[in-house]
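Bug #77: duplicate submission created two jobs. Keeping one. Sequence:
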Amino acid sequence: MAGAPHPWFVRKDLDGFFGLMIDNLIQLILIVSLCRELIHLPDSYIFGRILPGAAISILLGNFFYSWQARQLARETGREDVTALPYGINTVSLFAYIFFIMLPIYQETKDPVWAWKVGLVACFLNGFIEIVGAFIAETVRRITPRAALLSALAGIAITFISMDFSFRIFAQPLIAMLPMALIFLSYFSHQRFPLALPGGLVAIIVGTALAWGLGAMSGKPWNVGFTLARPVYSGGSLWEALWHPAFLNYLSVILPMGIFNVVGSLQNIESAEAAGDRYRTFPSLMANGIGSVVAALFGSAFPTTIYIGHPGWKRLGARAGYSALNGIFITFLCLTGTIQTVLNFIPLEAGIGILLYIGIIIVAQSFQETPKEHALAVAVGLFPALAAWGLLMVETGLKAGGKTLYEIGLAPFAQSLAIHGMISLERGFIFTSMILASIGVFLIEREFFRAAFWSLAAALFAAIGIIHAYELTPGGVATRFSFFAAPEFVISYLLLFVLFLAVGWWESRHK
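Kept job's structure:
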């Protein structure tokens, strides 16, 4: 009934909380380890500035999206509304570390200066998201659902499902039984004794296995607290903002800001496909404000609407799981207890939940689009697969102490079309949307609209948003310039002419 009160928490919120919490926890662990090992940032900045700043952003964002879900439930009279998930974006995290903070540290040997420029990047990312909120609904209206969902499915297959599958099969004695318990709960809807949530049962069993098998031996039992409070870091941000050095990194900041806007759009569309229609403008505005607040209080990593809403919805999570996640992550960030949690609970105990989320996203991209659009959804998967493949190549080279920059592309040419892989990887989320959109309109025989998307692709390639790259000591970097990827500009213009010609021919012979 519309207007009726809805509870803040339901029992199934615990399942959603455990999954989202583990995902957020992984991001925080990456921040701590990468800032320590690569940037050599002092712990006083990691635990005293970055984590408290992230805590404010994550808490405010999770509370907003929890409130937003309750408002939608009140307006519609439904009891099954699920909040949009929210946290630090993994892709942005790696981009900011490897393409902004690490090059600055290598050049200046000043980790604090690298952190300050990271604040500028996070702040500008939030600003781009705020601006994007004003035009996002228009973009969403002209983009087929298959294009929005297939890009998410590609990310779900690669950066979620494949990654966590590897982690599970690397530690089968610890991780496979918890995974099976999660599948029993979420695939079969099997009830457990005392009506315990499946995610909680899996974490308990996985933790018991890890300790029983000695995998946690050597972990300290002591619980350490290092209380921290958020510190306003606007002075450091403004100092770096007015320094010309950060202009060198706009080639990373700009596409990542656009990437997060488009990614959030896709997640909002994914939520609507699952049954929860959220207004685009407030959702994206809160997203951008969260990143701006994070930067002002010391975090160099933007927050964004997460992938995974349909999965949490299938688990039965509603509004409360988001608020619980915000409270718990804030507690970890402000007390320095991240390492303590990991000393007691292995990640393998809960990552089966995240594998399930990836599976749901992939399934949704085919189930919630017209059956005849399945071909377009499949085409949209390829760019994310290229991005994941390139990550595997670079990871393998780094393990051997080499980089693509040092080796060059020639050794790969015979067995792997490395140039094509990198070209498809650059701006892959946009390429995925473009290819899937073209596919949808070809299936629907709307040739002029397919031509429009081909022209858009040519423009994107011309300024370097897609396909244009160069090898740098820090890795593959996007090349922004006029006519940045000429081969692709010409190729997409040829598609534009072809589809226009076919559309004209069809219109004349109807």
